[in-house]
């Protein structure tokens, strides 16, 4: 039976509209675990980055330019609320789940570090042993449970909670939109012309958010450098 990421597959079924862009990443990871374990880390990274770029902006998180994916995931976990409404131990549940997810995140990071050793992802001597298959299974399984759980929590909030913390819209980032429009040409379709930034936002909000986070991080570094030069 082909390997399947069960929790992520369940997420695709539970949130078909929101989760559909994840399908390509899920399929790639399943394929790599099944037949190309050496490429597992790249597929895992794609799923982690999709979670970061989608969830973080709604929590007001700005990542550092050099943050690794486990650091970004930790920031997302710390910012999320896992408490259960009206439960007498709501706060303890929140704290305990954060510890649990933090442990999963740390384990995933350790497995990612193993990828730097010969015969885990990079080539080694032909007579050296390898754990590529086992390594891919463990890393893929952790990614399946952590990413799927975070997306499901983020997307399953009640309407009241969503209204309290509305997702940022296209018009909330005029400076970034202006930057994109200065870098890319307008898109013309059937006689109508659209700004490049608006097209990206409407067609792939995940890619829009990821590009914006990187741009904000770079701009922050530039501003700090300018202040130091002025001093």
- Count of DSSP strands: 2
Helical percent range?
55-70%
Mean pLDDT: 83
Could you say which overall geometry the principal axes of the C-alpha atoms support? globular
**Strand coverage percent:** under 5%
Rg calculated over all Cα atoms: 20 Å
What gap, in angstroms, lies between the N and C termini?
A: 64 Å
The profile of the biggest β sheet is: 2 strands, antiparallel
Strand line-up in the sheet with most strands? 1-2
| H/E element sequence | HHHHHHHHHEEHH
Number of helices: 11
Structural class designation? mainly alpha
Low-confidence stretches: 158-164
Structure description:
The protein has 231 residues and is mainly alpha-helical. The chain has helices at residues 6-14, 16-19, 23-35, 40-55, 69-79, 90-114, 132-155, 159-164, 174-183, 196-203, 205-230; strands at 187-189, 192-194. It has a two-stranded antiparallel sheet. A hairpin with a 2-residue loop joins strand 1 and strand 2 (192-194). The longest helix is centred in the C-terminal third of the chain and has 26 residues, at 205-230. It is globular.
Give the key terms.
231 residues, mainly alpha, 66% helix, globular
Tell me the layout of helices and strands.
Blueprint lengths: L5 H9 L1 H4 L3 H13 L4 H16 L13 H11 L10 H25 L17 H24 L3 H6 L9 H10 L3 E3 L2 E3 L1 H8 L1 H26 L1
Antiparallel strand pairs: 1-2
Helix pairs in contact: 1-7, 3-4, 3-7, 4-5, 4-7, 4-11, 5-6, 6-7, 10-11
In short:
The protein is mostly helical and 231 residues long.
């Amino acid at each position: 039976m082909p390997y399947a990421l069960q929790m992520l597959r369940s997420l695709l079924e539970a949130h078909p509209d929101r989760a559909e862009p994840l399908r390509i990443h899920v399929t790639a990871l399943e394929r790599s675990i099944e037949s190309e374990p050496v490429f597992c880390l790249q597929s895992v990274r794609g799923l982690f980055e999709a979670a970061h770029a989608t969830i973080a902006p709604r929590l007001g998180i700005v990542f550092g330019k050099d943050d690794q994916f486990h650091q970004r995931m930790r920031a997302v976990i710390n910012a999320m609320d896992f408490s259960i409404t009206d439960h007498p131990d709501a706060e303890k549940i929140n704290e305990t789940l954060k510890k649990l997810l933090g442990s999963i995140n740390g384990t995933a990071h350790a497995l990612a570090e193993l990828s730097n050793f010969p015969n885990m992802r990079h080539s080694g001597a032909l007579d050296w042993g390898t754990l590529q298959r086992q390594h891919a299974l463990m890393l893929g399984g952790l990614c399946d449970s952590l990413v799927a759980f975070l997306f499901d929590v983020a997307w399953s909030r009640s309407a009241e909670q969503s209204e309290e913390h509305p997702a940022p819209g296209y018009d909330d980032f005029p400076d970034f939109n202006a930057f994109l429009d200065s870098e890319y040409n307008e898109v013309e379709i059937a006689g109508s012309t659209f700004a490049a930034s608006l097209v990206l936002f409407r067609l792939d909000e995940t890619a829009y958010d990821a590009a914006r986070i990187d741009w904000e991080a770079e701009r922050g570094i530039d501003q700090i450098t300018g202040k130091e030069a002025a001093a």
